[in-house]
Amino acid sequence: GEDVEQSLFLSVREGDSSVINCTYTDSSSTYLYWYKQEPGAGLQLLTYIFSNMDMKQDQRLTVLLNKKDKHLSLRIADTQTGDSAIYFCAESTSGGSYIPTFGRGTSLIVHP
Amino acid sequence: EAQVTQNPRYLITVTGKKLTVTCSQNMNHEYMSWYRQDPGLGLRQIYYSMNVEVTDKGDVPEGYKVSRKEKRNFPLILESPSPNQTSLYFCASSLFGGTDYGYTFGSGTRLTVV
Fold first, then answer.
1. Using one digit for the tens of pLDDT, what is the confidence trace for A11-34?
2. Which of A25, B28, B43, B100 has the fewest CB atoms lying closer than 10 Å?
3. How far is residue B90 from each of residues A43, B42, B57, B75, B76, measured CA to CA in Å?
4. CB distance B90 to B43 below 8 Å
C-alpha cells in the first residue's frame, strides 16, 4: 500500500532556509501536497504539485519533485518564527480515488 | 466564509457513553473525511465519503460509525467510546477529492475518554 515518510523534527535559525523532505512509495501518485498545521489548529493546504512537474515556486516556498527517486521537498526561504509548525506531506492517486495519504508530519522549530 | 465546522472543540466523556462529533461544510464539497491525529502517528483516516449515502472505511475504522445523509454534514459517531479513542479528530472536505483543490480541514475536536 501507499506509504509516505518524513523526518519528525527540523530545527533552523531564523533567516536561514528550511528544507523539509518526504519520500513516497506509490509511483502512480498524481498529486503531492504540503500542508501546514499551526498549534491548536487544523491543517492548511500550503501548496501542491502535479506529478508531471519538477518544481513549483510560490513566494518563499519552493517545491521540488524527483519522480525517479519518489522524493518531494519543501524549501522555505528566509524562515521566520511564524513558520514554526508541523508540515505534512501527502499524496493522492486516481487509483486511490484521490483520497490523500499523509506522512507523520515534520515539526519545524525556528529559533532566533 | 468557506469553512469546515466541527463541534464540539473539546469533549471529555466516560467509557461507554455514546457520543457524536458533528461536521458541516458550506462549500458544496463532494468528498468528506474524518481523521484522528495521535503523537508520533500523524494523521490516520477513519472514514471517508465521496458523496451522499456513499461512505467507506479508512485505515482505522474500528469503533466508529459515520453517515452522509446530506452533502454538507458528515457526523462521526462513537457508539461505545473507549480510552484508546482519546485523540484529536479532524474533519475535512474537498471538491473532488485530493486533486489540485486539496482538502479543507476543520479546527479539530479534542476528545478525552476516561
1. 999 999 999 999 998 877 788 999
2. B28
3. 9, 12, 16, 11, 10
4. yes
